[in-house]
Amino acid sequence: xKPSDNLVMKILSLFILIGSTGGLIxxxxxxxxxxxxPAVSQERAVTFRIRAPExxxxxxxxxxxxxxxxxxxxxxxxxxxxxxxxxxxAPGTYRYRFEIEGVPVSDPVxxxxxxxxxxxxxxxxxxxxEWMDNxxxxxxxxxxxxxxxxxxxxxxxxHVYTPPGYEAGSDQKYPVFYLLxxxxxxxxxxxxxxxxxxxxxxxxxxxxxxxxxxxMPAGHTGPFTFGRGGLPMDEFIKDFVTDIKPYIESNxxxxxxxxxxxxxxxxxxxxxxxxxxxxxxxxxxxxxxFSSGVFGIAGPGLGTGxxxxxxxxxxxxxxxADLKTGLxxxxxxxxxxxxxxxTSRATVEMLEKRGFDVEYKETDGGHxxxxxxxxxxxxxxxxFQ
Length: 385
Description:
Blueprint: H1 3-31, E1 39-40, E2 46-51, E3 58-62, E4 72-73, E5 75-76, E6 81-86, E7 92-100, E8 103-105, E9 113-115, E10 120-126, E11 141-149, E12 154-162, E13 176-180, H2 196-205, E14 213-217, H3 234-251, E15 261-266, H4 268-277, E16 286-290, H5 310-313, H6 315-318, H7 321-325, E17 329-335, H8 341-353, E18 359-363, H9 369-379
Parallel strand pairs: 13-14, 13-15, 15-16, 16-17, 17-18
Antiparallel strand pairs: 1-2, 2-6, 3-4, 3-7, 5-6, 7-8, 7-10, 9-10, 11-12, 12-14
């Protein structure tokens, strides 16, 4: 036998060994019980499971689901599956993850995910609220849009909702609603955990809201963590004014006049809304601020720094009676347990002192998506009527 024949035989033997081992692994996996996670019952009990045979401990962590709190220890059964059951859980969409011996991991059998600021979460939807469920109605489309920011000199991403029928290609133009996320989120968040697309679909189907384009840009311009001198607001505002708004008005069948343009945001996005909307008040007829206000107005905190205050910087615009005439809605909402409640109240007081007609409400709850979805559902029907 030639040396080359020996080499061929060795390679063939190796492939046979690999194939046999793979077959044994596949056979073992075939006989392992399937793991279903998350499982939502008709009674809205939610069961979370993960198979982790070698783990000494597994915890369930999450964002807004009250039942999870700061995290729950899970229990392992005889099949090496860790499990915990919660509920009944209020209808809504919730982020969650597992911590396996302190290491956060997504649910490996759940393809539904939601991005946030620098990480991702697994996602579970608990049906029961028709206004945000996936109903049998005409649906719009959510596109992941990439653009080049000339102000930041790099590629950027945003999500854009277009209403049912937009793709038909008619000459119809639509009003535009810019919807901004918070400090711990990203441009993906409003359409995943925020259910924005479904909320708009259901409102439009019932003729409670006008068909509109909803633009959800990325509010962060770089890595962010708390404790680095506040929130860097100016870079995003420049990106919005220089690139985002012109891109939408050039590439979509969008009305560009003030009466057909709205902007709103939650938390950091609410501060962005004021940082964009007040200096450019001639371009926006609708302002919405969810769980937010002018950062620092109620004392040291997020966004505070040296220099003139927001009120001092924009005094001329805040006192311009003609600009207020074209402002059809200035709407604030904050939870009574929200850590930015004082910021919201102080901002509303400042705007009213300057002659703004502010519609303000305080709701139950805190700084969570449970409230923000509700606020969107209430705010959107007020637009462009």
